[in-house]
Amino acid sequence: MKACVCRAFCENDRVPPTDDLSREELIALIGSLVSTNESLTESNAVLRSRIAELERRLGRNSGNSSLPPSSDDRPGVNRAARRAGRVSGRKRGKQPGAPGSGLAWVEPDVTEPYFPQGTCECGQNLSQAADAGVIRSHQVHDLPKVRARVTQHDLHRVRCGCGREHEADRPAHVAAAPTSYGPNVQALAVYLLVFQHLPVERAALLIADLTGITPSVGYLHSTLARGAAALETSVARIKDEISTAPVVGFDETTLRVGAAGRKMYVLSANTSTHSLFWLGGRDLASFHAMGVLDAFTGIAVHDRYSVYDHPDFAHLAGHQLCTAHLLRDLEDAAECYPTHEWPAQAQRALRALIHAANTARAAGHTQVPARLRRKHTRLFHQAVLVGLSQIPSVPGGRTVKQLPARALLECLRDREADVLRFTRDTRVPPTNNISERGLRPEKTQQKISGRLPSLTTTRHRLTIRSYLHTAAQHKINLMEALRDAMTGNPWTPPALAPS
Questions:
Q1: Which of 60, 63, 133, 387 could form a disulfide linkage to 409, CB 3.0–4.6 angstroms apart?
Q2: What is residue 402's three-state secondary structure?
Q3: Bridge partners of 266?
């Protein structure tokens, strides 16, 4: 028998040289090598799949996923992904057609007259000249120097002629302690901590620099509990109004809370006039505890998270899947399959329908004109069918995780009515941007302060945020709304207008 041509390989891998093997042993060796090759091929396919998934994750940005724009510059993201996350096709600054704004001319609080000084060429002093009127005026909007004012409340006792003595009652807004901070200071502390997301030490420093008083860090923390307690009735009213709304946007975002930095979720329910934020998990029990979905019977606008489709919420009138999420998912598919045309066609059709819905709503129509709806829906439907033919399903049924693009396509096929509901009812927004915008400040807070150490205090923050966000939606001055709350007379959100 001839010597093995791969002797070095066999020796290195501890395989006996073939010239020392019988025919049966050679057959067994070949079978073993074939089996090893098949195993390596399978392992290689798994590794290729994992590499592709890692490359996909590395390329995720705000343009093709739900990641925020701040993540586009994170280390490791390639330049193309960064550009994709930033480019919107618009120039910076004011956009054409956007309403402008400027400093308005108002009735002045103080008027300062100025007259020419010196002498005239004739030698007469100008202070003796006759006033010929104002030639022009300039208004300067500025703040007066802010300094805390200490008010001493003296409670007197009087003696009636009959000999009985009577003592004055302490005003409701004055604390029982000999010295205390008033409602304006408390309102400012809550505003800085909750709405402007300042760390408590910086909030204390700002108040000291601005007013001259030096509240302690502990005192500032205590204002959150006091504010949340004062707002229980108002927030309950917000929850009731949202539960009876015809359309509500729902969203959720992660938040690190507690000494161990436990991962929790801020759940939100938003309309254009009312907002509610709740701290819990991303499980079914938390959505029940939020107290909106159980009573809500309208149309829910949300992402593709499965809890919204749970049988417990089968009483909902319908769903609208957020098209902003879908467009980002389609962008991700376009990057994963650069030779495929279906992602771009689906995006074009979906954007055209969104534009048509916005135009119809602005014109007072209840739905997109039938001709436009049929045209772009057909193109969208065709793109989905082409995608399904090009992205094969992974065998194994519903128990097997499908490729992201395949799962997206199956959703677009099976839930087309929930994807395009906004075209038949212009009350329904095509995106859930109102809820996403409401949750962004919570991520800002976490970026500034890291994890929030107290679960209870975090719940207080979200109670106050629900009140302030709703007040802002109604153009209410937030400092006034907080001061009213601190004096026991919180602003009450109005009822939703009939749909």
A1: 387
A2: coil
A3: 253, 279
- Tokens (6 digits) for 462: 């979200």
Burial 132-163 (b: 16+ CB within 10 A, else e): eeeeeeeeeeeeeeeeeeeeeeeeeeeeeeee
Q: Which residues contact 313 (CB under 8 A, 6 or more apart)?
A: 287, 293, 300
Q: Which residues contact 341 (CB under 8 A, 6 or more apart)?
A: 383, 386
B/e letters for 239-270, b = 16+ CB within 10 Å, e = fewer, are bbbbbebbbbbbbbbebbbeeeeeebbbbbbb
pLDDT tens-digit map of 77-136: 554 544 444 445 667 777 777 777 788 999 999 999 999 999 999 989 998 899 999 999
Contact present, 39 and 52 (Cβ < 8 Å)? no
Q: Which helix (H) or strand (E) holds 159?
A: strand 157-159
| Sole residue written with tokens 């120039």 | 91
3-class SS at 448? helix
User: What is the predicted pLDDT for the residue at 66?
Assistant: 62
275-284 tens-digit pLDDT: 999 999 989 9
List the beta strands (DSSP E) in 258-380.
262-270, 275-280, 299-302, 318-321
How far apart CA 233 and CA 223 sit, in angstroms, is 18
| Residue 379 and residue 345 in contact, taking contact as beta carbons nearer than 8 Å | yes
Q: Could you count the other beta carbons within 10 Å of the beta carbon of residue 416?
A: 15
- Alpha-carbon separation of residue 392 from 134, 337, 371, 384 (angstroms): 81, 13, 33, 13
Contact present, 439 and 253 (Cβ < 8 Å): yes
Question: Read out DSSP for 279-290?
Answer: EE-SSHHHHHHH
Place of tokens 């005192």: 219
By C-alpha distance, which of 474, 477, 463 is closest to 227? 463
Q: Which residues of the chain have pLDDT under 70?
A: 1-20, 56, 59-90, 397-399, 450-451, 497-499
pLDDT at 84: 47
CB neighbours of 46 closer than 8 A, spacing ≥ 6?
A: none
Single-letter code of the amino acid located at 97 = G
**What does the alpha-carbon distance between residue 429 and residue 360 come to, in Å, rounded to a whole number?**
12
Tokens representing 305 are 């998270």
